[in-house]
Amino acid sequence: MIRFSEEVIKxxxxxxxxxxxxxxxxxxxxxxxxxxxxAPEEIIGRKWLDIIPSEHYDMVQxxxxxxxxxxxxxxxxxxxxxxxxxxxxxxxxxxRFDKKTGEFSGTIGFVTDIxxxxxxxxxxxxxxxxxxxxxxxxPIGVFHFDNDGIIVDCxxxxxxIIGSSRKTLVGLNMLALPDQKLARELQNALxxxxxxxxxxxxxxxAEKSTPVxxxxxPLLDKDGRSFxxxxxxxxxxxxxxxxxxxxxxxxxxxxxxxxxxxxxVIIDRDGINRxxxxxxxxxxxxxxxxxxxxxxWENVHPDDLAPAQLFFAGILQKPGEKDTLECRYRCxxxxxxxxxxTGTNLLxxxxxxxxxxxxxxxxxxxxxEADREKLQAQLLQAQKMESVGRLAGGVxxxxxxxxxxxxxxxxxxxxxxxxxxxxxxxxxxxxxAANRSADITKQLLAFARKQTIxxxxxxxxxVVESLLKMLRRLIGEDIDLVWQxxxxxxxxxxxxxxxxxxLVNLCVNARDAIAGVGKLTIETGPHTFDEEYCDEHPxxxxxxxxxxxxxxxxxxxxxDILDNLFEPFFTTKEVGKGTGLGLATIYGIVKQNxxxxxxxxxxxxxxxxxxxxxxxxxxxDIEKNVPEKKAAAGGTxxxxxxxxxxxxxxxxxxMLERQGYSILPAASPAEAIDLAKNHADNIHLLxxxxxxxxxxxxxxxxxxxxxxxxxxxxxxxxxxxxxxxxQGMLDDGVAFIQKPFSMADxxxxxxxxxxxx
Length: 757
What we know:
Helices cover about 40% and strands about 25% of the residues. By secondary structure, it is α+β, with helices and mostly antiparallel strands. Strands 2-1-5-4-3 form a 5-stranded antiparallel sheet. It has a 5-stranded antiparallel sheet with strand order 7-6-10-9-8. A hairpin with a 6-residue loop joins strand 8 and strand 9. The radius of gyration is 57 Å and the shape is rod-shaped. The chain starts with 5 loop residues before the first helix and ends with a helix.
């Protein structure tokens, strides 16, 4: 006997009845009690025949006899509920046997309410009828084939789709179709799997080809045995035509989106990219799938993030709101482009559900605007500098004349005064103050670019060494200046004042780059670069060069600063701390002397400026930058002195006459020409101011040369104003003395011009 736990018996929905050998009920479970409505005590102890209706007696008695022989029974009957209602039930009765003796000990019966089952059977019959109607009237094709793949039934739509007749199709072996893919899917269904096929079905019974979709499922009986398969066939002709139309339309849209200038975007209310048109890769390097799903703010420049988010929040406030924003958008390579984003709030549109907008690349316009602003600022700065330069040049010119008088008369007074005279020390102080003032005017002239450049052959080490004391004062005591000259250097040819400008600018920049204590190194050396080296190192020039390098251990510079380092007006200093012309001036000086400059720097690693000046190989004699000065002798030659300032004319005449020269003074070019024409003897030297009313010194010299072809020329001025200099540089053979000058300098210059071979 099968044993059940008490929990199982209580949980059973079906009724359970146990009887003894006399068919007396000895146990009923709650399921049986619920089925008939009797309490257990009303059932237990009664004969089974007393419980069932009399019309079932014969059937039940025969069943009892079979159970006594060890046989089971199953039969249907009607039992009466306690309330009088009938219950249609199914009885499964099995004999029980004593475990020890093996003899028949009673019956175990399972009682199942089959009223619902009866209803289900009726419903099944209705469903079968409904199925047949659906089968026949289904809008899609339906077919049934057996385990051999033979079609046993199909509906009219299947016939219409395939393109034949029911009579022809019933009996067709589907497994023998030429389309092997379809045949395999049908076989899969026969093997117990779901088959799916989509393709073009070519009818074997009619000349027709139809795009179809086929689903095939196995058919199993109640015991799980296969009795064929059922398939449904959908005609895809209309769908394929619609899909082709959509494909063409989408292809057209894709081509349009890929070729328009703007990137089309959809951003949801949370700022997530939901769509980016394919041309985003063309303009910004991103593939659409790389940015769709990401937060749109990830690629907005940090400086533009706050206004961009504020702009987006404003659009979200009103349905249909449209607005435009300009910001920088990050490309895949890390660079940024300026975009104009025009967005429209279409959150309520079911097809968009976000902000629909477009990115327009406006980098060119923004760069042009920036360039215009930069040029405008540079123009204003240049105009200001030019105005200041003209003012400085004019002031320096006039001031030089005054200083010339002060220095000249002071020197004359000193010549007449004994060293022990009490006025001698005062006169020397006046002379020192005038010389310091003259240095200031030289700085003004350099600032105004009115100072004449006079290239000469130099030993670079000598020039640098002469400046070290001044440079140490310039950078201060906290910075250690290290001088590392090369033992053997080639000569260069340039104006020593330009070396001064280069070193002063570089040392000032190094001083500003060092916070607190630091180190600055100046070094020189010879370098040769061949064509192969220069091909691999852009910016280098083949040839032999003299290196002048200035290095510091300051804050260093990043790539952005290095890229703009030599641009005029570019500066990293605060407003009022620098003009941005220092390095531009250095670059111009180096280029003017046919050299080149390279800069090496990294943030936090300091900077090194390497300036390469071409080797000078014209001849072997070297003109020292700081030659040993000797007192120049005077002379007896005749000098035509032309100066429009009467005080300077008088003073210069007195200085020259004191040196023994014969002077023809002229206060104007016209007077000088008359003197030259009317002078009976030879005139050896024309010493003339450069800038004068009505005629400049160069033109005057040309006219005097027609009368005295061999006359020597010496020009003097507070600044040359490009009259005797080309772009500030004196031509070879042109002699010039800068005002103010001392008697010794003037005497030396005059003697040098007169004695020049």
